[in-house]
Design brief:
Radius of gyration: 26 Å
Number of strands: 39
Structural class: mainly beta
Oligomer: single chain
Length: 692
């Protein structure tokens, strides 16, 4: 521990002379405007691409969100009405360095946008939280206000997305308020499952058919106050309130085989989950001279999650119970995140350093198949990092080193591990529109709370699901060689990748002696590997937005070597396609894919199918939207076990409410003046609710 404290002291000492200032000055704005006049739309750096927008794009856009969705690796997700990456993974959105919601991005007018930074290789302070980062840079703040609202709903089923926002700036003070709701209420989901296995010299097979009524409601309220003194300091306090409820009501029948004996079974499953999560986020940043900035971020939350599940199966002829699963979990959860960061700008580079600590504590009261229990778990993570970036002629580089400590204390085990996390990024600019980049990184991956859970639930006769409190932290080594090319018509990236996970978290079936059947649980596999090529980008046949084709194609291979030495392999071609067109005030988009199987522990599972068509029309501050999701098909999800599994399992889910779902949307956005956006260097959040 003394060595850790010493490392922190040394790091902070270095930090005082080592971080950058990124103020949105008038000078910077003028430079970007000059770039626009030269019609330069994209500039590629070692870890990011910087996009600017011409006059036509600025005039067509309703708000900044319309500009960001034109980036070649981003698109609008029609289901949630939010932006997502065509590559998948987690995307973090920022405005002048501060984490921003979808509504905040909507509230920025196109005329305020200076540039957009797209990090496909996130800097150290975001690397553990996101796979890509989008930072929207805006002009200097001015007094003004902005507000808006939108709603999207389906006619024939329970599907509602709604939001409203308001922002007022006066002098150094900025006030913001947001509200959003996502509601789903589907009464026609069919689930077909098969369990086939041998147990105690008998052959068992269960063929299930169920119909579910399920749904959820998620609401979010944000109140935000910012005090900003340009070029000196920024203070922000934000209160975030999350409200979540979900339910499931299902019933069906199954044919149960035990060798030559056949039984007709009835079954039902009811479940509920809910939580109310308040979060307080405090941020302070101060410039130290002209080349240094020190930032501090504190985030805290405390809430209770309630989960219940009642599932039964019985013999229809005799009425005898096959199993009776009554599970109730009450989890009192508190979390805190603290981070300090410092950036110093040198003449030919910059040094970024920081320290982050996060702690999640959960007190559980659990009633399940094994009786009543009370236990506490605690997940602690510390992360020290420093990285230097610079440029020599056509070569750019970013060298980083970190130290990560993961200390997981479950009900039955303590896992404490320190890991050195180096990172290297090298870039070579071939010419103005071509570049070649190489990145290599090593970092730990902690198991999730559900994987570490001590909970047990019944899935089928002789089959349960349980967590594994004895899991160790996995270690991930990733390498990417990226070729980028862009001109008026193409914006293209080809990524040759190789990822290796030591002690990969793997889900599989094992014999459960305590309950006399099989358990679906977790293990640390020996390793897993994934390699292939990912091709992403956009093509504009006419050199404008009249027709844009965005694609993501990734032929790849993945393997898992289990703890007992079995080698599991899967080949696939990931894909996603989007066609869009804009003409004056009209726009239309069609998104589709061909689902493929990916390794998911003991299973092969398909990604969600897509066939979504929607159009919009803008009339002054109003926008009218209509569309049809999952054209001619229900949303579809397939899972099947691998040949190596001791339980042969398959599952096919279809949500028929989604088939050819017709939606209508209405949006209103108004602004006067310009908002006060702050340049926040730290963005954190506490752990999500523990639900298993």
């Amino acid at each position: 521990m003394k060595r850790v404290i010493c490392s922190i002291v040394v790091l902070c000492s270095i930090s005082i002379f080592s971080q950058e200032i990124k103020s949105d000055s008038i000078k910077e704005t003028k430079e970007i405007q000059e770039v626009i006049l030269k019609s330069q739309r994209k500039k590629q750096y070692s870890d990011k691409a910087v996009y600017t927008f011409d006059k036509e794009a600025l005039e067509k856009a309703r708000y900044a969100k319309d500009l960001i969705k034109t980036l070649p690796e981003l698109q609008l997700d029609p289901i949630s009405n939010t932006l997502k990456s065509t590559k998948g993974g987690t995307t973090l959105f920022l405005i002048n360095g501060i984490e921003a919601s979808d509504m905040q991005i909507r509230s920025v007018q196109p005329s305020e946008v200076v540039k957009v930074e797209y990090y496909d290789i996130p800097p150290a302070r975001w690397a553990t939280r996101a796979d890509q980062v989008v930072n929207l840079i805006t002009r200097n703040p001015e007094t003004g206000y902005v507000f808006g609202a939108d709603t999207t709903t389906a006619f024939n089923t329970g599907f509602v997305n709604g939001s409203a926002y308001g922002n007022y700036t006066k002098g150094k003070n900025d006030f913001g308020l947001e509200y959003s709701i996502n509601l789903r209420n589907y009464n026609n989901r069919t689930v077909k499952s098969i369990y086939d296995y041998n147990l105690n010299d008998f052959h068992y097979r269960s063929e299930e058919g169920k119909r579910d009524h399920f749904g959820y409601t998620y609401q979010n309220v944000v109140l935000r106050y910012t005090l900003s003194v340009p070029e000196k300091y920024v203070f922000q306090t934000k209160v975030n309130l999350d409200f979540f409820t979900s339910f499931i009501k299902g019933k069906g029948q199954s044919i149960f085989y035990k060798d030559d004996i056949t039984e007709q079974h009835g079954m039902f499953k009811n479940g509920n989950s809910s939580y109310k999560k308040p979060t307080l986020d405090l941020y302070f940043s101060k410039n130290i001279g002209k080349k240094d900035e020190l930032s501090i971020n504190l985030v805290g939350s405390s809430f209770t999650t309630n989960n219940s599940e009642l599932a039964k199966e019985w013999d229809l002829s005799s009425g005898n119970s096959v199993y009776d699963n009554d599970m109730n979990l009450k989890a009192k959860q508190s979390g805190i995140v603290g981070e300090i960061a410092h950036v110093h700008t040198f003449e030919k580079g910059k040094l970024s350093s920081g320290y982050r600590i996060s702690n999640t504590s959960i007190s559980n009261e659990l009633q399940n198949l094994e009786g009543f229990s009370e236990y506490r778990v605690n997940y602690l993570e510390q992360y020290l990092y420093t990285e230097y970036s610079g440029k020599i002629n056509k070569f750019s580089y970013r060298l980083g080193a970190g130290l990560t400590n993961i200390h997981n204390k479950s009900a039955e085990n303590v896992d404490d591990e320190w890991t050195i996390t180096p990172k290297i990024i090298l870039s070579y600019s071939i010419n103005n529109n071509q570049s070649l980049r190489f990145t290599s990184s090593y970092k730990p991956q902690s198991p999730g709370s559900s994987a570490l859970s001590s909970n047990v639930v019944q899935m089928a006769p002789n089959i349960v699901q349980r967590g594994n409190p004895f899991l160790k932290t996995a270690q991930r080594w990733g390498n990417n060689l990226i070729y980028s090319y862009n001109n008026k018509y193409f914006d293209f990236n080809a990524n040759l990748f190789y990822w290796y996970n030591n002690r990969a978290i793997n889900q599989y079936y094992v014999l459960d002696e305590a309950l006399g059947g099989y358990a679906l649980t977790y293990e640390n596999a020996k390793n897993s590997q994934q390699y292939g090529v990912q091709l992403t980008g956009s093509y504009k046949p006419f050199g404008n937005s009249l027709l844009v084709i965005k694609t993501q194609i990734s032929p790849a291979s993945e393997t898992i070597k289990t703890s007992d030495g079995k080698l599991i392999k899967n080949n696939y071609i990931g894909n996603n396609f989007t066609l869009s067109s804009e003409y004056k005030s009209f726009s239309i988009q069609y998104e589709f894919n061909i689902p493929v199987y990916n390794l998911n522990g003991a299973f092969l599972s398909t990604n969600e199918n897509a066939s979504h068509l929607f159009a919009s029309y803008k009339l002054k501050e109003w926008t009218f939207t209509t569309g049809m999701y999952w054209l001619g098909m229900p949303s579809d999800y397939k899972t099947k076990s691998l040949p190596e599994s001791v339980v042969n399992y398959s599952r096919h889910n279809q949500i028929w409410n989604n088939k050819s779902m017709l939606i209508l949307g209405l949006s209103y956005d108004f602004s006067k003046g310009k908002k006060n956006q702050i340049d926040k260097k730290l963005n954190n959040s506490t752990a999500p609710a523990a639900t298993f």
